[in-house]
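In this supplementary section we document a worked example of the pipeline. Step one takes a protein sequence of length 100 as its only input; no multiple sequence alignment statistics are reported here. Step two produces a three-dimensional model, which step three serialises into structure tokens for compact storage. The input and output of this example are shown verbatim.
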Amino acid sequence: MERDTSAWLGNKMQLSAIKELYSLEKQVMKSNNSEIIELWRKLQTSDHFYYMCTKYFADGDVHKYFNHYDTPYDAFVTYMNVLNDLKLRLKRKTLRMSFA
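The serialised model returned by step three reads:
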């Protein structure tokens, strides 16, 4: 059994998703919005990235039993949609602050 991070950060989808997530950190923390910060923290949960794993997808491994997605690509698309929603929330928060 391999002991590395490739199940979570081993393909381009996973790397793209985590890069996008961490690129929001400064905006998220600057928002001082506990709901947004909590959402951002939950998006760091390793399961999100594991569901995007293509490494073991054909093996029928036990983790797939708990997977909500049919394919790693479906997990990626859903995750990126959630990140886009978070970006929109941050944008609205920034706009409200600029008009206050």
